[in-house]
DNA sequence: GCAATCCGGACCAAATCAGTACCCTTTAAG
DNA sequence: CTTAAAGGGTACTGATTTGGTCCGGATTGC
């Protein structure tokens, strides 16, 4: 299974929790209470998100975090990049020499970039606003990725 | 970084090495020599691929492995599924109750399926034949995923 | 000044993964 | 029939990554 780190999952939970509140700033502790996640973990996530510019932080006595942009201007790719680092599936990515142990023998160094690009594009097609929609049983896909004709659901 | 397991990377290396040989069966040891990977690891990979029907194996004295299908009839999603298991980015996928610890509080259970579908579609758009192409500096994307307007290359 | 809040990093335990080894079954060659 | 060569399966171990926690310091409002 291509594991997305659990922290990234939590990040989406926290961010959607912020959407549902009013526009005011949210403190890390209040978000932890509303999401049921441990407070230090929430704090860690918020810090990572703020570092990448997805959150606007305000220090001091009445400080807190706010979303830096509108929910539909934030996509899943950005959240993943903030928590897990750049989106690259393999070690043999473009700029890293010597990362892959067999690169001297492997004639296909760099072709994973095509895969990376495809995945990245798919992730950019899903916004935070999409994730925040309460539930949608129908596969209407109003603004998701261009819906390849997925061969089967269970691959 | 969304890590794809290193074994999956190796699987593509091994499979492309098979393409470049003649049509005859390849033994695990000969493939290990040609790819520079340790023999037990190659054997393990081949076993996994054979179990999922991507390889045709022949036992006995003159046995070996062959590709079960043409290179352009095998896509990256299938290889990943064979090595890493089903493609699902998060623990909170459709059929797993209790997998995610916060599911009772999280109102968005199941929305990750949209992301999963998008990624899966992107992966299905890249075939093994694409990966075997010696090198392609141009982003023509002859048969890759429908190319969303990627915002930037460095996300 | 004081209290509340964010900031940055270090730290540890648990889970996962890569790699290896072992033994069994199957098949073809001699 | 016997033997050797190859895949099939499983179990084990060390290394790596991850999730989660903690603490001291900086910043702002009351
Ligand atoms: S360089 Fe890593 S797979 Fe070839
Ligand atoms: S159920 Fe897992 S994120 Fe909500």
Please tell me about this protein's structure.
Two copies of one chain form a homodimer. Chain A is mainly alpha-helical and 155 residues long. The first copy, chain A, has one domain: Winged helix-like DNA-binding domain superfamily/Winged helix DNA-binding domain (Arc Repressor Mutant, subunit A, Orthogonal Bundle), CATH 1.10.10. Helix content of chain A is 41%, strand content 5%. Chain A is built from six helices and two strands. A two-stranded antiparallel sheet of chain A has the order 1-2. In chain A, helix 2 (28-35) packs across helix 3. The first copy, chain A, is elongated, with a radius of gyration of 18 Å. Chain A starts with 5 loop residues before the first helix and ends in a 23-residue tail after the last helix. At the A-B interface, helix 1, helix 4, helix 5 and helix 6 of A face helix 1, helix 4, helix 5 and helix 6 of B. Residues 92, 100, 102-103, 106, 108-109 of chain B line the site of one FE2/S2 (inorganic) cluster. Chain A binds a DNA duplex (30 and 30 nucleotides) through residues 3, 5-7, 27-29, 38, 40-41, 43-44, 46-47, 50-51, 57-65.
